[in-house]
Every structure is written in C-alpha cells, then in structure tokens.
Amino acid sequence: MDELNICILPSNDITNLTIKLSQQLSKNYSTEFVLNQKDCIPHLSLYHVGIPKKNYTIIISKFEKLIKSLKSFHIDIGGYKNLDTFLFWSIKKTEVLINFQNQIIKKVNPIREGMQRMSIDEWKNDLSLSDDQLINVKKFGYPMVEKCFDPHITITRFKDIKDTMSVIKSLDTETKRMRVEKVSIGLIGPHGTLPKILNTFKLKQ
Q1: 120-128 — which CB contacts under 8 Å span 24+ positions?
Q2: Containing H/E element for 27?
Q3: Side-chain half-sphere of 66: how many Cα atoms within 13 Å?
Q4: Contact (CB, 8 A) for 7 and 43
Q5: Residue 108 in contact with residue 56, Cβ under 8 Å?
Q6: CATH number at residue 183
Q7: How far is CA 175 from CA 77, 89, 146, 160, in A?
Q8: Tens of pLDDT along 68-125?
Q9: Is the distance from CB of 4 to CB of 51 less than 8 angstroms?
Q10: Could you tell me the residue range of the domain that residue 97 belongs to?
Q11: CA–CA gap between residue 129 and residue 117 (Å, rounded)
C-alpha cells in the first residue's frame, strides 16, 4: 500500500513562519516533531489516502487531467486551534477551498478500492473523532472530509494536552493571505507529517 498525502504547500513566507514557530515551541515544550524543509515539511492536507501500489500511476494520470480545470486561488490563514495534542494554524474554510478538496477526493477515492490506512479502532485510539468523522473514515478512509473538513497547517504535536491549550492562549492571531498555485502528492509520515514530496502539479493562473 502507498500511503499518500495530497496537499497544498505554503508560500515561502508562510513556510518560514511555521518552521520558526515549530522550532521555538520545541525548545520550551516536549513535542512529537519539529517542522523543517527537508523531511517534516509544512503543508495543508487535503486528503490522506492509502492506495494499492499498482494504482499510483492512475492517480498521476487523474491529476494531470484534473489540474487542467483547476485555477489558483487565495486562502486566509489566522488564529490557532487544536485537535487533541495537535496545534494547528487555522485556515478559513471557503467554498472555493471546499470545492477544491471535493474535486480531488471525487477523483482519488475510487482508486483506493476501499483500502484503509488505519482501522476504525486505530483512529479512535489516536484521536477523539466525532461520529461524522468516523463515518468519513469508513467512506473515504479519512475523517477530515466534507462538513468535517478542517483546513489547517500543523505546527507541531505536543506530548501533553495542557501544553497545547496553554500555547494556544499565548499566540498572536494575525491573519495572513496566501495564493495557492500548486497541489502536491507526498508520503505520510508519523503524526501526519510530510517527509517527502513525490509529485507537484501547477494550477491554472
């Protein structure tokens, strides 16, 4: 099975800000990982999916056709939130972004042939998921889909939930705007990290 992260890579300035914050937090708190530009790359996940290895070339072919119809767009980033011990930099959930994710999932979900990266019990043991998110896991193999889509850039994952909540209260909530010009396919690392980018596709301007 190939475990893939279909994602948006931040602009250079956003990438540098997320890495800087992740590194600063790791100096003062116990965390599971620290972002960098080599093997723990900042990103906005659209879909985590496990597919049969034989189907990887099919995904590439689907993307090459799909990307011709998708235009670049802006996203607004601002404020921080958490999912359990994860610290997220929040991204405004717009119709454009929702539609962008939906079009990708519509093309990719059938290619996984029902394959699941993690069992329901494994998801439950790792995160506190809602009933709707668990339904999404069964249907799409990923909880953050449709109305449960929660766009964000992960900064880090703390080992203690108390640290997560304490840090959120102390962070600046300034809003940043970024233009989305590419979508990438990479590997999924521990804690949903992005250790390697396999392919990148440029959107229409």
Answers
A1: 127/83, 127/84, 128/83, 128/84
A2: helix 12-28
A3: 21
A4: yes
A5: no
A6: 3.90.1140.10
A7: 5, 10, 24, 27
A8: 889 999 999 999 999 899 999 999 999 999 999 999 999 999 999 998 888 878 887 8
A9: yes
A10: 2-202
A11: 16
